[in-house]
Hints:
Blueprint: E1 2-7, H1 19-26, E2 31-36, E3 49-50, E4 60-61, H2 63-81, E5 88-98, H3 101-107, E6 112-116, H4 125-133, E7 137-142, H5 152-163, E8 196-198, E9 204-206, H6 216-234, H7 236-247
Parallel strand pairs: 1-2, 1-6, 5-6, 5-7
Antiparallel strand pairs: 3-4, 8-9
Helix pairs in contact: 2-4, 3-5, 6-7
Amino acid sequence: MRIDVITIFPEYLAPLELSLIGKARRDGLVDLRIHQLRDFTHDRHRTVDDTPLGGGAGMVMKPEPWAEAFAAVLADGRAALGEDASPLVIFPNPAGEPFAQATAQDWSTRPWLVFACGRYEGIDERVYEHLADAGIEVALASLGDYVLNGGEVAVLAITEAVVRLVPGVVGNAASLVEESHSDGLLEYPLYTRPAAWTGPDGTVREVPEVLLSGNHARIAAWRAEQSLARTAERRPDLISCREGAQQHGAGDAP
Length: 254
Ligand SMILES: Nc1cc(-c2cccs2)n[nH]1
């Protein structure tokens, strides 16, 4: 998988050199490149923004640097992946579609992702139109109903959620199966040794006995029940989504 990130704060993406993602890059599973948007300006101040036409507070990112940056990234990617290669261009944006585990699953199968990190009040609308008119697939992704100062933090989160699903990145693929949201539910409670823990306050807390029973069928049933109960309590919206999907035969034979 190739990933390009266009940003005015490349240093924000430094964490992508660490840990799992860093190892995936070193192992050649992910080819990740960071591009400084200001490198595609031509004035002394390397200007990327201007005041909003029609008035209003703040600044808007100018279309020219973005168009030049996309042209360069597309050319570079096609030189590496083939002239027919075409990326999914992702703009983190509070007005975007909610990014969820299903999105991460889908995007983890794509050969090429390009992330565009907006700042200020946002990016000139004509940039999105320019890409769409060029036949480039564009997605606006929201991490949640809150506003960040820029797309970089969202790119860190999305990249981690996506890349960890790329085959070979996580050592034990089985650990990806029983996670929160992997089956549309929240994960069951987890325990490890000691079976009886005496906390700092002297309280002894024991692990549910079923987990010590060695009866794998009972353990699986208990975990399924815990997942459902925990989801119903904390995220009832996920339950109704799941019931809706089941009523409409999602996953049934066509
Ligand atoms: N979910 C979400 C995305 C964002 C931003 C993306 C780019 C600038 S602000 N805020 N909140």
